[in-house]
Structures are given as structure tokens and as C-alpha cells.
Design brief:
A: mainly beta, four-stranded antiparallel beta sheet, 30 strands, B: 22-stranded antiparallel beta barrel, five-stranded mixed beta sheet
Chain lengths: 348, 703
């Protein structure tokens, strides 16, 4: 039986080896941070997250939402909107809107689908006026990967409940609140629809260029639209007419169509293909040919209060991403780590 | 299980002297009967045991029955031998000696020198009839299987390699899907296969593409003169498990027919704790049901002792609801499904004569995967293979052959039908310079339409440098180059398919030490293996301007340590078997622009895996305990630990017990299995729920 003893030693040894891998680390408390990085997450894993960066201490914190709430955002984050001290995480796979308090990230509510009610179908973006929230939905995914029956979901922000639907004929993308109206970029077509929030009726459809995607308003209260057909369109929300259409040359825009503006509201930034970041004055009459920055794996874009340019990097989608900070003149300052596929920023 | 018990009970009736001599033979101790059979004069390699032999070497179950002679005087002994072999079969997981006898699905051991080979014992196979091979091997071996949920896509991560770096051979031919380059192990029920053997490490010289991390052999072989037998196994269990498995075989001197039919359905609506929702409520899993059924038919005909012909057909069908992530459990709009179908046909002719040994195979393989009732990917393969083997001298054997495949792919996303030819030429040399030293030198060159695969040589050595009466020590060495031809998806997917891809290729070196100790009652075997592997041009899909495209991107270094430990105690009434497999796997990304990703463990590659299997057999009773452990896996290449970035370690206890009854010729056995005894809530893949404790009841009937 001596050999048996040896064998038992071996057993113990083997198991001991196995258990050394079981260590876990406690999460640190979240310090106040001024940059929130939205990490879209991997579609397959529903692991979208929020990480933070402190521009003073350069401290990065991962997974701040789950650290506060004990459960993750759990979806692929399409957009995060900050509205009256509430954050609205719009996710697909699964289709839902996660609502959290903006000051401490405490979860307020999760609005999703159940077997009996369909509230969202591949939702994309959130915008609100007063106590009315709107979520754009691409529609139902068909086996051939097309979407049918797009709509807007209405959310009553008094009690954060789904209060209705507005059917759409064309796939909506970005929503933007301007005054009492919601502007709907109809990415499935070539128009911007203007929805009056008082009666939820469409005021008008403005024909822009094909595949309008993101919108923002500049310091002159002009609305800019970046279109996947490689056009920038300026329109005047006062009379809902197109004022200018600027063609973006070269290889065109990056497929996720990022459009940002500086704090002063007079310089536009967008992502071109191949990780090029372009800068353009709102008074320009042609789009620039040369980029300000080239960051090969750029995925998201943000401009902070000091006009520093934040470019998020997907890192080939095989690991967590990172963020590169550039000065307004395009000089790289530093980089910091983020979560999975960082796609956007909220500056506080 | 039952045949084991029955035969075990026979043991009591065997005269003890005979028993002793039989045990000697079985356990490989010195005995006049265990002398190496002399090859028939002029018969060339004695590879095929068509000629009567005095005694077969130890083998699992029925494998060597072809060697049973007609001499009636030894019939009784041989019959009992068979019984004992059943016995020893039950108690062996790693039994390298097995392969001294012809095993149809694998090359002769002469050409396998240096390779580590593990066989799944027949008890485990039989009691897991309704399980898929992914689940089975995860519990039985140190290999890690990534499972996208319970009963969902299961892909191997063998020795730190990727999902398409394990070759799966069905009776010698690679059945990995050409489209996505791997085998979904959840599609292969244990019942469909008579034998499962696992060959560790690079073996492209022997098997061609995909054999980087290892090779899984699924095989069967003819059994003559067995008469009529039926084997029916019915399982019911938690979460709507219903599994019927029936085997019918009939054989005479020259003819054999084997039929196996299987049907398994699982509602898979197990409760789980939803970690992605506030308060972590318990929910029932939605959209994870499946139905898997199929059948195998094998016809064998023996023209003469040295010539035999075999026809095999295997049809398999699965309808699968694809288990969503935990957070998507209510998101029914986005539920997806798939259908898998495959048909495998093979005609096999063996001829062993004075000229040498010939084997000719013709096969047709069809694979069809329909995703969400819409996107179809259908491939056809016509395969022809000729092998010729000759024993050149007493110590030198040669095998040479050609394998040629014609591939037609009808995949919606390729835009057009794709057609190509793949032809492999191979030469194997087995050389035995000393009685205790075996060398193998194998080489293969594959030619694929449009591009070249690397030349794949391998050199292996098996040296038994120490031998006493009861104990022996052997040293194994293997140096091999292996490769993987890019998948059809990699090359033809529209958009993104990259026709300019090179084959992935790797070098590996391994060293192993095998200790064996055996007496009539104890059998101990320890195998310690260390390997190093370097894989270049590892293909990854990379984002491009408008689409993703595969590139020869990654450089991986995998190294590891494996310990396989098997111990059997055998007394007149109780048999005990303990098997432990441990695998330490460090597989790292070598080069990356991103410094955070350099030198990091590949995702879904656990550093540690342990599998413990204990079996006790007492008279008609039988008890088995399986425990396996998988250390933490990273979701991403920067190896961050966290709720979203790593998947915690898990371990599972599975328990099973059974009893058999015999009423004349009829054998009935009942089995109770309790899986996940400690009711662990665990994930194998991130946010894919897995079931807690569950029960399965089996009823079997055999004659």
C-alpha cells in the first residue's frame, strides 16, 4: 500500500495545484470621475459596460454600473442618453432600456420585453422632451437579417413606464430633441422627420441625403446631419429647410457614423473610415480632405469641455479597448484603458 | 454496464488457476500465452489479425475478436479471455497497450511512437449513451470544451489551441465541417460511437489539416460470429430529457450487420439564477430545447480471412433552439435556432496479402447547417483514399497513401458555389531499432486548389528504458509540424473572405514519461507529459473598412503539463478504478500591436483542468463518481478579471449508480445519474446559464 500513499500525495498535490487558480479580487469603491466611457460590449456576450476616467488622477474604473448595482447593464449598448439626471442605456441583444440615476448610477428601472409585451425591437437611441421619452426601434429582425415594422417607443418619464408606440415606415436611427420637437434620422431612407411632442404627430419630413444617421445642433442653432452616403447636411430647425450639403470625400465615413461638436459649438468632428478623425468649422463650405488625427482602430469619438479629443479604440475587438486623448490641435496627450469596444463618452 | 456485471459474475465460475493465467495474459505479465504472435510466413505486416492467433494482446471489449481462432481447444480460454478483457476494458481509460492490436479507426502503433493516446472506457461510454461527447470528454479528460450553454455548440480547446485545431476523425476520415472548420461536439452522441480515442498533440503528418491540438477518433470495427444481439437504452430525466437508443447487431462467420439508432430530446427549461437582473432572480431557461436523432448502419463482409469489405452510413439531424444569454432570456423576439444535418457514407476495403496490406476507402460526407430557417450552408465532400503498407524487414515498416477530396460548397453567403480539390500524399515509417525502442517518421504534403499547405513531418520515439517484472518506465518524444487549411468561410465568405490566406502552421515538441506497474490485483499507470507548441499565422477575423476579413494574424505559444493517473484494484468481488487527469495549459498570444494583449493567456483557455473519475464495481452493483474542475477563463485577451471580463472557475460533481439483473439470456440494467450534485450555479461561456442539480434514470435491456 506504500504506492497507494504515493498516489494520495499525488492526488493532494494535483488538487492543490488546481485550487491556486481560485483567487478573486474585491472591487474598489468608485472615485469621482469626470469621464464616463460607454463600452458597447460584444454582441455575443451582452457585456456592455460603463467605465470611468478621472482626468485629474488618470484613474480608470471598470464596470462601475455593476459595482454599484450588483448586476450588469447586460446588453449591447447602442446609445446612452443623459436627461434630467437620469441615464438611459439603450441596448439590443437583449432589447431594453436601462434607466439609472446619473449622480450615483443606481439602477432605477429596466424596461424590456416579456412574452406578453413587446416594448422594444432592436432599439437604437433615446431622446426626451419634458416628461416624454422616445426610443427609436429598427424593428423585428427577419431571418434574412433585414428589419421590419420600425417604430418609436414612448416612455412616460413621470413613472418610467412604456406608454405607447408610434409606427414608422422607415427605419429610424438617431433621435434628437430640439425645442418641443424630436428630430428622427430615418437611416432607412433619405429624410429627417420632425415629430411634435405635444401631439406626437409628424410635422414634416425633410429630404436630406441618403442614409441620415447622427445629428447635433451647433452654436447658431443649426442642425447638422451626418449621412452614411458620405454627406454632411446642415438644416435650419427654425423653418426645417436644408441650407447646405457637403460631400465627404475620400473613403467616406466610418460605418458607425460618429459626429461630435466642441464646447463652443463651432467645430464639427467625425470619424472617417480607416480611423481618421476629421475636424471642420461650421462655417466651412467644403469638407476637409486631410484628417486631424489618424487612429487606426478608432471606434468612438468625444470632445470634452477643454476641447480635448477623445478617440476610443476597439483594439481589434479581441480584448478591452482603450481611449486616446488628443489636444485640440491633434497632438496626442495620453491613452487610458476602457472596457469592451468603447463607443462613446459622457463628460461631466 | 450490464455486460460488465454479467461477465464479472461469470468470474466466480472460472477455475482459479485458469483465472490466474488469464489475468496474467490480460495484465500483460509474462506468460507463455502472451508471447508475441509470429507473423504468418510471407504475410507481410501482421497488422490485421485475420490469421488465427494464439492470444490477443489486451484490448477493450470486442476489438480483437477477429483474432479468435477456430481451434476449439482454445475456444474456451479465449472466450474467458474476452470476458476478462471486458473487465479490464471497464477499468482502463489510458491503456496504451490496447493499440498493439488492430484498431480500425487509427493507424498502427508503429506509426504512433511518442504520441499520447487515451481511450474512453466502455463503461463511461455506455452510461453516457444519451450525452454528447463534449459533455463526456469534459468530465473524463483534461481537455477543455467551450460550451455556449447546456447542450449548445461545444468546441474543443485542446492543449491551448482554438476551436478548429482539433481534428475529429470518423473511421479515419476528418469530419470537421469545412465551412466553419470545427466539429460541434454537442452533435455527437456518445451512443453513436463504439470507440472514442483521444490522441494528444500535433498529428498533421498522420491526419492532415486541423490536427494541431489533438485528434478525436471515432471508430468501429467488425465483430464476426457474434450472433444476434440487441441493446436498448432508455433514459428519462430532469428538464424533459427523453432519450431512446437502440443497437441491433447480427453477425455470422462472413457477414455482420450493425444498426444503431438514437433519439434524444431535451426541453432544457432548467432553472437558473439570472445574474444580469436586479436581485438575481431564478428564472427558467427559455429557447434552449433540442431534438437530436440519427442512425448508423454498418455492413461488413469477409471474403476471406485476409480480405474484408465494410459499408458504413451515419445520418444525423438536430433541431436546436439557440440558448440566449441570461439577459436575453425574455427577449423572445431575438431568439434564434438552427438545424444541423449530416450524412456520412463510407465504403472500406481491406486486403492483407503477401504483397502487402491495402486499404481503399471511398466516402461521401454531407453537412448542412441552416441558421434561423434561412441561411443555408451545405457542403459535399467526395473522398477517396488508398493506403498501402508493407513490412520491409522485421524492424522496418512502411505505409504510403493518397487521400483526395473533391469539395463542393453551396453556401448562401459565398455568393456562388465553390469547388475545390484537396489531395494529400503521405508516407509513414515505423522502425524498431531495438526491442524496447520504437521510432516513427511520418510525412504528409497536402495540395489544395489555389494554394499550398506546408509539408508536415513528424518524428516520434517510444523507449522503454526500464523494465522489471512488475514495473516499467518509458520515455516518449515527439517532434511534429502541423497545419490547418483555412476554412471555406475564411476564404469565400462574401464580403470579407480572404483568398490570400496562408495555412496556419505550427511546430510542437513533447516529452512524456510513462510509468506502469502491474500485479494480478493492482494496475497503476502514470503518464507525465510536457509539451511546447508554436503556432504561426493563426487566423483571426479583423475589422476592415467596410467588413471583417480573416488575416494570418496571431502567433501563439502554448505550453503545458499533463498528468494522467490510472489506478485499478481488482479483487474477486470488487473492482475499483480511479482515474485522474490534470492539464496545465499556458497558451499565450506572442505578438500584438497592443501591449496589453502581448503574452496574455488566450480567451477561453483555462490554466488548470482536473478530471477525477472513480468507479467501484461490486457484484451486480456499480457506482461511479466524476468530479471535474475548470479554472477561470478570460473573455478577452487583456486577461482582466471581473464580472464581464472573466468567467469564474467551476467544478461539477456527477454521481451515478447502477444495478443489473439477468434472467436467462436477458439482461436488464437500471442506472441513476445525479449530475451537478452540489447544485453549483456556473457558467462555461459568459452569461450562458447552465443547469443545477439534475437527475436521470436509465433502463437498459440487452440480449
Amino acid at each position: 500500500m506504500k504506492r497507494l500513499n504515493h498516489f494520495l500525495y499525488f492526488l493532494v498535490f494535483t488538487f492543490a495545484l488546481g485550487f491556486t487558480a481560485c483567487k478573486t479580487e474585491e472591487a474598489e469603491p468608485t472615485p469621482p470621475a469626470d469621464v464616463w466611457v460607454v463600452n458597447e460590449g460584444n454582441f455575443n456576450s451582452a457585456d456592455g459596460s460603463l467605465s470611468t476616467y478621472n482626468t485629474q488622477t488618470q484613474q480608470v474604473n471598470y464596470g462601475v454600473f455593476e459595482n454599484v448595482n450588483g448586476f450588469p447593464i447586460a446588453g449591447t449598448i447602442q446609445n446612452v442618453a443623459l436627461f434630467e439626471n437620469q441615464l438611459f442605456f439603450v441596448t439590443n441583444a437583449p432589447d431594453k432600456v436601462e434607466i439609472a440615476r446619473a449622480n450615483d448610477l443606481t439602477s432605477v428601472k429596466r424596461l424590456g420585453n416579456t412574452f406578453s409585451t413587446t416594448n422594444f425591437s432592436n432599439p437604437y437611441s433615446f431622446a426626451a422632451v419634458g416628461n416624454k421619452g422616445y426610443v427609436s426601434n429598427w424593428g423585428t429582425l427577419q431571418p434574412n437579417f433585414s428589419y421590419t415594422d420600425p417604430y418609436l417607443t414612448l416612455i412616460d418619464l413621470n413613472n418610467n413606464t412604456v406608454s405607447g408606440k408610434i409606427n414608422r415606415a422607415v427605419q429610424p436611427q438617431h433621435l434628437l430633441a430640439v425645442g418641443q420637437n424630436i428630430y428622427i434620422a430615418n437611416v432607412g431612407g433619405n429624410t429627417i422627420s420632425v415629430l411634435n411632442t405635444t401631439d406626437n404627430q409628424i410635422v414634416t419630413d425633410i429630404t436630406v441625403a441618403n442614409l441620415p444617421d447622427k445629428m447635433l445642433v451647433d452654436k447658431n442653432n443649426k442642425l447638422w446631419v451626418i449621412c452614411r452616403s458620405n454627406n454632411l447636411v446642415r438644416l435650419n430647425p427654425a423653418n426645417n429647410t436644408v441650407e447646405a450639403t457637403l460631400a465627404i470625400d475620400g473613403q467616406g465615413i466610418f460605418s458607425n457614423a460618429r459626429l461630435e461638436i466642441n464646447t463652443a459649438g463651432d467645430k464639427l468632428y467625425w470619424l472617417g473610415s480607416g480611423g481618421k478623425v476629421f475636424e471642420m468649422s461650421i462655417t466651412a463650405t467644403t469638407a476637409p480632405a486631410a484628417p486631424l488625427i489618424t487612429e487606426a482602430q478608432a471606434y468612438g469619438l468625444g470632445i470634452d469641455k477643454n476641447n480635448q479629443i477623445f478617440v476610443s479604440d476597439h483594439n481589434g475587438y479581441v480584448g478591452n479597448g482603450e481611449v486616446h486623448i488628443y489636444q485640440a490641435n491633434g497632438t496626442k496627450l495620453r491613452s487610458f484603458n476602457a472596457g469592451r469596444i468603447p463607443s462613446g463618452f459622457i463628460f461631466r | 454496464m450490464s455486460f460488465l456485471l454479467i461477465h464479472f459474475s461469470c468470474l466466480g465460475r472460472v477455475p482459479s488457476r485458469l483465472l490466474k493465467s488469464i489475468l496474467h495474459i490480460v495484465l500483460g505479465a509474462k506468460s507463455p500465452l502472451s508471447a508475441e504472435p509470429k507473423p504468418r510466413a510471407g504475410a507481410g505486416a501482421s497488422r490485421f489479425a485475420y490469421a488465427p492467433r494464439l492470444a490477443p494482446a489486451p484490448a477493450r471489449g470486442l476489438r480483437h475478436t477477429a483474432s479468435i481462432g477456430c481451434a476449439s481447444s482454445i475456444w474456451v480460454i479465449l472466450f474467458n479471455l474476452l470476458i476478462i478483457n471486458y473487465l479490464s476494458a471497464q477499468t482502463d481509460t489510458v491503456q496504451i497497450k490496447l493499440h498493439e492490436v488492430e484498431i480500425y479507426g487509427m493507424p498502427d502503433p508503429k506509426y504512433l511512437a511518442g504520441a499520447k493516446i487515451e481511450a474512453i472506457d466502455s463503461l463511461s461510454l455506455r452510461t453516457a449513451a444519451h450525452q454528447n461527447i463534449g459533455d463526456l470528454l469534459l468530465g473524463q479528460t483534461g481537455i477543455y470544451f467551450k460550451q455556449y450553454g447546456n447542450g449548445m455548440l461545444a468546441s474543443a480547446a485542446f492543449r491551448g489551441t482554438g476551436a478548429s485545431h482539433t481534428a475529429v476523425l470518423w473511421n479515419g476520415l476528418n469530419i470537421n465541417a469545412l465551412t466553419y472548420g470545427q466539429t460541434d461536439f454537442s452533435l455527437l452522441p456518445a451512443f453513436a460511437n463504439e470507440n472514442i480515442d483521444i490522441q494528444y498533440g500535433a498529428a498533421s503528418a498522420l491526419y492532415g489539416s486541423d490536427a494541431l491540438g489533438g485528434t478525436i477518433h471515432l471508430s468501429s470495427q467488425p465483430n464476426w460470429n457474434k450472433g444476434l444481439s440487441l441493446d436498448y437504452q432508455q433514459f428519462i430525466g430532469s428538464f424533459g430529457l427523453f432519450s431512446s437508443n437502440a443497437g441491433l447487431s447480427f453477425s455470422k462467420r462472413k457477414f455482420e450487420s450493425k444498426t444503431r439508432l438514437y433519439y434524444t430530446e431535451l426541453a432544457n427549461n432548467f432553472p437558473f439564477q439570472n445574474l444580469t437582473i436586479s436581485g438575481k432572480p431564478t428564472e427558467r431557461q427559455n429557447n434552449a430545447a433540442y431534438k437530436l436523432y440519427g442512425g448508423l448502419q454498418e455492413l461488413n463482409y469477409r471474403f476471406a480471412q485476409n480480405r474484408h469489405f465494410s459499408l458504413k452510413a451515419w445520418y444525423s439531424h438536430r433541431d436546436l433552439a439557440i440558448q440566449p444569454t441570461m439577459s436575453g432570456n425574455q427577449d423572445f423576439q431575438n431568439f434564434t435556432s438552427q438545424r444541423d444535418e449530416s450524412l456520412r457514407l463510407m465504403a472500406d476495403y481491406y486486403d492483407n496479402s503477401a504483397i502487402g496490406f491495402f486499404n481503399v476507402k471511398i466516402a461521401y460526407l454531407l453537412d448542412n447547417l441552416v441558421y434561423n430557417h434561412y441561411s443555408q450552408s451545405l457542403t459535399h465532400r467526395w473522398i477517396g483514399q488508398v493506403r498501402y503498407e508493407k513490412k520491409l524487414t522485421e524492424t522496418l515498416s512502411l505505409q504510403a497513401g493518397i487521400n483526395s477530396q473533391q469539395v463542393v460548397a453551396q453556401v448562401a453567403d459565398y455568393g456562388q458555389n465553390r469547388q475545390e480539390n484537396r489531395t494529400d500524399f503521405f508516407v509513414f515509417l515505423g522502425y524498431k531499432p531495438l526491442k524496447n525502442w520504437q521510432l516513427s517518421l511520418n510525412i504528409r504534403q497536402a495540395l489544395v486548389t489555389g494554394f499550398a499547405a506546408p509539408l508536415a513531418p513528424s518524428l516520434g520515439s517510444n523507449w522503454q528504458f526500464f523494465k522489471k517484472e512488475k514495473a516499467s518506465l518509458s520515455l516518449k518524444n515527439l517532434l511534429a509540424r502541423s497545419y490547418r487549411v483555412p476554412t471555406l468561410n475564411d476564404r469565400f465568405w462574401n464580403p470579407g473572405g480572404n483568398p490570400n490566406l496562408r495555412s496556419e502552421s505550427g511546430w510542437s515538441a513533447e516529452i512524456g514519461l510513462v510509468y506502469q506497474y502491474q500485479t494480478a490485483k493492482i494496475r497503476w499507470e502514470t503518464e507525465l507529459t510536457h509539451y511546447q507548441m508554436w503556432i504561426n499565422d493563426w487566423i483571426l477575423w479583423q475589422p476592415q473598412v467596410n467588413f471583417w476579413q480573416p488575416q494570418n494574424q496571431r502567433k501563439v505559444h502554448a505550453q503545458g503539463l499533463e498528468i494522467n493517473q490510472n489506478l485499478h484494484f481488482q479483487s474477486e468481488k470488487i473492482q475499483t478504478k480511479i482515474g485522474i487527469s490534470y492539464a496545465y495549459t499556458r497558451s499565450t498570444n506572442q505578438e500584438d500591436e497592443q501591449i496589453n494583449f502581448r503574452d496574455k493567456q488566450l480567451p477561453y483557455t483555462p490554466l488548470h483542468r482536473v478530471a477525477f473519475n472513480g468507479q467501484v464495481i461490486y457484484r451486480h452493483w456499480w457506482l461511479a463518481l466524476n468530479w471535474h474542475y475548470t479554472s477561470l477563463r478570460y473573455e478577452t485577451l487583456d486577461n482582466l478579471e471581473g464580472l464581464l471580463t472573466s468567467i469564474p472557475a467551476f467544478d461539477l460533481f456527477n454521481f451515478s449508480a447502477g444495478k443489473s439483473f439477468k434472467i436467462q439470456k436477458h439482461q436488464i440494467h437500471i442506472t441513476l445519474k445525479i449530475n451537478n450534485l452540489t447544485n453549483n450555479q456556473y457558467q462555461n461561456y459568459l452569461f450562458r446559464a447552465m443547469p443545477g442539480i439534475n437527475y436521470q434514470l436509465g433502463l437498459g435491456y440487452r440480449f
